[in-house]
Structures are given as structure tokens and as C-alpha cells.
């Protein structure tokens, strides 16, 4: 296939893997230089760790925020704060980054996978309810791609059972659900500052809460459970050093100031793209639920394989002709198909904590996950970031239109 002459072919889409798609400037450089000049790179002694936490808490409208060194660490801190007993169950999603799942195992709890809505790949109150048991200690909801889960129904369910909700907000900074930011609706919000996220420090993360006790445990878990400032400090329980450095904190502090503008640009460009491709038969854009707003970590389509040859895979192949890199089927397979879960590869040959699990909690039969397989089959993940301009969107929309025409199933 050759690209159509209709399309401007010298356009290169900004990438969030390098400077073209990121928003670093003199502000970040000055803050990092200040830290280096100070010679203090550790957040227990420097000022930026605290400044970042105060600013992030203020921006999210919560009482506490604690920075840590990855989104995986943020989820681990959240799970540790809930303090499950070995063999307790934590409900999570079948489709997410592995960094959101192994922390559950490291805290001795059993991840129990809920199916997802095939239209969004997000868990729902219905899919969660099906896997709640009397061993459920917490629910982790993951707002994928900048699109909030339907939190009203999920919170009603969780509250009716007295189960705390952790919101994995790694991909959904400033997305709103009924006027509240996701990450601030449940007991704990966990965020990632990894390279491709809405704001970034390369690696990094942060947790937020309004709960005093949970906040204390999260702070301690990040800090080897050492009671800094206490009259008789000690290492109170098993935990890790999950602190970020002052260099990262300085970078994050400056990135946070750019978050609103970046999100706004993503939303504006996503709205334009949606308009431009709305009439293309066989593809549909992901939509937020009523009362929600999306912040477009990525731009996702559902591709109908009765209209487009080989569905999302076929469309991705055709898009490559225009140098547009997309990800058909996102993570490709559900988490429970990964060997860490399918073979229970954990600590030595113990299979701990899965050796404590109810058989039903670790039954990963395909028929229990119809939404997962359908959603993964249909999805095409398109790139977008805060550096996209109208010109980029026009190019992307034209490429999608041409690619869909090339791959169209003959009627
Ligand atoms: C939804 C989700 N949760 C958790 C993580 C883990 O974050 P990190 O890569 O910063 O450890 C990621 C990936 O980055 C993610 O997308």
C-alpha cells in the first residue's frame, strides 16, 4: 500500500517518548539546577519533596499527598496502607499494567480479576459485584486511558459492603466524575509520573487520601516505616524505601504547574479528532459516561471487524503506511494470562500467596471474562499528547480515514 497523495506526508506526530511530545523547559532546568547546587538530593532533607506534596494535594483538593518513586510503588503503598492479611482478596481489573497488580501479591493478598466493559475496558459495579466475597479487603479500580470508571455505582456498591476503594489514576490525571477528580473519590488515589504520563519525571508516582490513618500508614510505608519526629521512633512494620529524589520532586513540582494546560490541550485536540472521524463507518471513539470528563492519556477507538478487514489489527497495519504508530489490542492479553498468574510464579516454589486462595478466586476460565476478550479484540490505541496541534490532528484524522478506506471489507 502506498500513502495517498491527499495527505501531507512530511508531518511527524509528537512522541511522548522524547522531547517532541513532552513539555520540559527552562523552569524544570532551573529547579533541577537549584537542587544540584544545594547538594541535597534526598527529600527528607530538601524542600522540593514537601513542596510537591503540598502543591499536588492542593491541586487535587485533598488533605494528603505523598510522593514515591513509581506508579507501581504508589499502588503498593496504597495496598500496604489497607494492610491485608495473607490470603485476603483484592479485586482488580483484568486489563492494566503489571505494575498495578504485583504489589497486591507482594503484600500477600490475592488479586481477584473483575471483567470489564468491552466499550471502555474499565471495570464496572456489575463486574466487581460478581467477584466480591467475604474475603474481599479492597477494590482497585483503574481509570484507563483518561476515562473514569463509573464511580457513583462503584462507590455505592463498595460503601454498602464497607470495602475501601483504591483508584489507580496513573492514566487519568484531572479526569472528572460527577464534578470530582478521579483519584479523590475512593479512599486512596495512586498516580504515576512515568515517561508517557500526563506529567512526568521519567519514573515516579504519588498517592493521595483524605483519611488520617491511611495517610500515616502511606507515609510510613514510603519511609521504611521509620517514625520521623516521633518521641521514640522505630521501624514500626515491614516496609520499603519508596522515596523519590529531590531531583524528581523538583521536576514534578514544575510539571504540575503545566498539567492543566496540557490536559486542556489534549481535550481540545481529542474533541477535534472525534469530530473529524465521526462519520467513518466501522470505527467508534471511546466516550466518557454521563457526568464524566476524559483527559485522553491515549485516544481509543473500537474497530468493527465486519467493516474493517482484520479489525483493529488491520487498521493499525494500514495506519503504518502513514507512519502512524498505534497499538491494536492494547496490552494484547488479559493480565491473568501472564505467567506470574497463570503459573503462580512468586516466591521460590511456594506459589505464595496463591496457595491460600479460594479455587474460585484463581479460576481464570475465559468464559468468565467476555468483556475483556471483546474489548481487547476491538480496541485500537492511538497516540495523543499535550504537544499535538490542529495540524497533527488533521493529519491523524486524514490518515485514519485513508487507512479505513484501504482496509474496508468489500460489501
Ligand atoms: C494503570 C497503570 N497503573 C500502574 C502503572 C505503573 O506505573 P509505573 O510504570 O510508574 O510503575 C501504570 C503504568 O505506567 C499504569 O498505566
What does it look like?
There is one protein chain. The protein is of the alpha/beta class and 411 residues long. It has a domain at 26-256: Type I PLP-dependent aspartate aminotransferase-like (Major domain) (Aspartate Aminotransferase, domain 2). The chain has twelve helices and 14 strands. The chain has helices at residues 26-38, 48-60, 71-82, 102-106, 125-131, 151-161, 212-222, 246-277, 311-320, 339-342, 370-378, 390-406, and strands at 64-68, 89-93, 110-114, 136-142, 165-168, 176-177, 180-181, 188-192, 205-209, 283-285, 292-293, 299-303, 327-328, 379-382. β6 (176-177) and β7 form a beta hairpin. It is globular, with a radius of gyration of 22 Å. The relative contact order is 0.17. The model has no long low-confidence stretch (mean pLDDT 97). The protein binds pyridoxal-5'-phosphate. The site of pyridoxal-5'-phosphate has 15 residues, from α3.
CATH class assignment of the domain at 26-256? Alpha Beta
**Spatial separation of the terminal alpha carbons:** 20 Å
Bound molecules: pyridoxal-5'-phosphate
N-to-C series of helices and strands = HHEHEHEHEHEEEEEHHEEEHEHHEH
Question: Which structural category do the helix and sheet elements fall into?
Answer: alpha/beta
Enter the CATH topology name of the domain at 26-256: Aspartate Aminotransferase, domain 2
If strands are numbered along the chain, what order do they take across the biggest sheet?
1-9-8-5-4-2-3
